[in-house]
Amino acid sequence: MLAVQKPVWRVAWQNSLVSGNFYCKSMSWSVGANVLVAISEQDDLAAGKVLHENKSGTVRIQLNDGSKITVGPDEVFENPNKTPKSRQRSRSPARKSTGSRGRSPGRGRPPKSEKSPARAASAGRKRSTSRGRKPATTPKTKEEKPEKASTAKKTAEKKKQEEPTGTPTMTLRVRRWNKDENIDSDTDETTKPKKKNKDDSTSKPQLEWGGTIGVVLMFAVFVGVTFGALLMIRSVAVPPKASSNVTEPQGSFNLRGLDWRKLVAQWPKWDWNAVGLLLGFWAFELLLALLPVGPIENALPGSTGPRQYRRNGFLAAVVTVSGILGLRRYGYALTKAQLLAYLPVWAATGTIVGFILAIYFCWKGYRVPVSQQNPAVASAGKIYTFFIGKQINPVIRTFHVKMFFFKLGLTSPVVLALLIYLNFEPTGYAQLVSLALPCIYLLDALLFEQTFLTSFGIQTEGFGFFFTSMIGIYPALAMVNPLYVITAKVEMQTWCVVFHCLVFTVGLLINRLSCNQKYRFRKNPMDPAVSHLETLPTARGKKLLVSGWWGLVRHPNYFGDILMQMSFGLNAGFGHALPWFLPATTILMFFQRVGQDHRHCQAKYGDAWSRYCEKVKQRVLPKIY
Prior knowledge:
The protein is an alpha+beta fold. Among the domains are: 10-83, SH3 type barrels (Roll), CATH 2.30.30.140; 269-491, no CATH class; 493-625, no CATH class. It is built from 21 helices and 13 strands. The longest helix has 30 residues, at 336-365.
């Protein structure tokens, strides 16, 4: 959808090199050197000192405000306002006082204009005039020559004469977004960073989900609902244990009469076989992702992460499903009781592994250049940064870590849906549709996974505990809806099931067509399929789509996704709130992301985004919102 342009400070730097306003870059830096650091998120330069230079080429710098950052070699420049020590010509105190060339005070010679006492007392030698020389009527006194200025002083004086009065010694042409006047303005900024006002609330990015307390409570709710739902379904689905005297009553979905202590006591024992199966599944998916199979997608201009990505998520899902069916044919299969006992263990294992991975990537995020860090947590606390993520797209060599977790979170529910179908043997249209619709939804995302490379979730949101824990929480939570429909034996009339499928199909078409249209425009604006669409230019050189699907509402893909989530809940009926939890929270997250995306685009595109909002007034729901 958008074209690429170089960062503003880099364009300004290259232009100033031509005009001669800057000193040239140096290939290496000495400890304590005064430098300027380019902060790409703020389009500004910050002054600091070099602490050390790493072997990888990055430079560790301490800014004037006391903070320490690690940046790349192309983001560090010499500070011309402070001359390095290597360029200063030192003089001894004797030379400064007497003007002599380094001699001690005892050996200093008197100035040529003065005579020694003995020479001053003598009359001097008389010169004869027989050679045609006229006698001097008045003795000529020798003029005193001014002291020669050093080359550095001459250069400084010449620069002061050339520069107009009242201008700084070095200026930087910066393209900035003026929030007060709501226009794009060119302003001359000095390289000395401005002191931020403590009362200025706009200097700090807005924290999402209510800050630290909000993200912790939201994660606790997701974990509590997931494990509570799994235990409740297990108590209802597993047949009661019978003995000679006592028969345990079967569980119920009634929340009012539910004994939570007894439900927690039914937590299955920790089974290392279940842990081994889950780890083996992850290893198998990692191997499929690393295989040189599938087309290679080049990263679009301006995107973060690796420059190339291999697209094979749908193929990996097909291979995995085929492998499970092959193992079942040879007698390697899980029973219904084992599956219900393994589900909480799998969810807990995924959460623990996600916690460990989140700690590692958060620690690693503090050691990468500022350009690779998440600006949304720049001024946030440690706990909030841990949940949201210090990095946006961490990379291990050329491996796209975030996209692998994304594919793993989509493939796992498909595998669970297959195991549920094989063990529970659902009957009735509502039960079959409750398994089929989520699988179609997930397989469609895997089939067109390249469109997610430029999505808001991949390119803007951080890679923290929220993201890593989803490998354990989301697959189990996604199967709560079909498990409830099957265990509660929900039955619906045929026309209701057909209506649910129709709502899902409309949402799927809107979501897929709008995402494909945006991806084609971002990849190649001259593509015949999107070249006829109306666009709006921005100050950054990129363009915004204002026709097609993106001319109807600002987020047509969210509208299609909301319709699909509604179909999931409608298929389960209104008899219980449990199957509505994931669809309802997903819809709320979409509306929250709409506001987050609006603030991000407003700061990024400025007046162009305001004009786009005036032209396309509805955000998600046509004629409503």
